[in-house]
Backbone:
């Protein structure tokens, strides 16, 4: 038996493949500024990937983004964007510090995670709710193609399975 | 333009959260019922390369109006411009203190 606990999470009621990804509008933070963007407007550019992570300071957020950088998801045909409860200022710093080639939605109220059925109340941080780690591959009609949602805490995306669906040649 | 961006509003408004000079411009844009999108930048001027690139300065507010091709800095100048371009006589003009681009912006 390991001497640490990985906690099972309650089943999430999230959009499944074939269902529509809920639209939302939140500040989208890039390397120079942030502005309100809707998911619908992102979808106008075609396929996209929504990456929900715990808040920026957590090792989970850093590991997930480091992995996506290593895997060159920024070269995918799909637009990869993040969602966390971190503020636009924190996102801006995170993008700067890590030279992150992705843009991040800021959702301090966690309403987006609630709409996606993946809100996670943090034990020991009273009143703080954030998304559980989750990744949705969505087509330009906002139809979910693939969904990976953490079933344990902590848990990391099944990157290989997601890449199989993305089907992009991500190698240089 | 970055991947994923769209140009759906003709007026782009570079601003700083809570900056009174920006709020003045914001109030006027709303008073004239103009469609605009807000782009928020950070307090440090050194972090505002986008504003420098667009308008040649690092102060905000800055307004880029694709309706007219005008890019303008300095809140006093912006207010005067908006009044001249979109004002319809007496409404909303009482917020104006004229063309006083005096460098007081953030």
Residues:
């Amino acid at each position: 038996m390991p001497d640490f606990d990985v906690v099972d999470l309650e089943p999430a009621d999230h959009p499944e493949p074939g269902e529509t990804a809920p639209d939302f509008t939140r500040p989208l933070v890039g390397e120079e500024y942030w502005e309100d963007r809707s998911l619908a407007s992102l979808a106008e550019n075609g396929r996209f990937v929504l990456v929900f992570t715990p808040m920026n300071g957590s090792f989970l957020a850093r590991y997930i983004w480091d992995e996506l950088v290593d895997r060159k998801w920024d070269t995918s045909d799909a637009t990869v964007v993040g969602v966390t409860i971190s503020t636009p200022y924190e996102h801006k710093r995170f993008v700067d510090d890590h030279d992150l080639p992705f843009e991040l939605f800021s959702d301090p109220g966690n309403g987006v995670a609630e709409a996606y059925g993946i809100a996670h109340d943090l034990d020991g941080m009273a009143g703080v709710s954030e998304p559980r780690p989750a990744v949705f591959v969505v087509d330009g009609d906002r139809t979910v193609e693939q969904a990976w949602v953490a079933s344990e805490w902590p848990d990391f995306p099944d990157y290989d399975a997601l890449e199989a669906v993305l089907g992009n040649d991500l190698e240089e | 333009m970055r991947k994923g961006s769209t140009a759906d509003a003709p007026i782009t408004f570079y601003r700083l959260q809570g900056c009174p000079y920006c709020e003045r411009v914001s109030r006027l844009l709303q008073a004239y019922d103009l469609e605009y999108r807000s782009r928020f930048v950070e307090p440090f001027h050194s972090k505002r390369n986008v504003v420098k690139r667009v308008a040649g300065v690092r102060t905000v507010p800055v307004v880029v109006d694709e309706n007219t091709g005008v890019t303008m800095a300095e809140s006093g100048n912006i207010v005067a411009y908006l009044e001249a371009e979109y004002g319809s006589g007496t409404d909303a003009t009482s917020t104006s203190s004229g063309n006083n681009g005096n460098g007081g912006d953030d």
User: Anything to note?
Assistant: Residues 1-6, 92-102 of chain B have pLDDT under 50 and may be disordered.
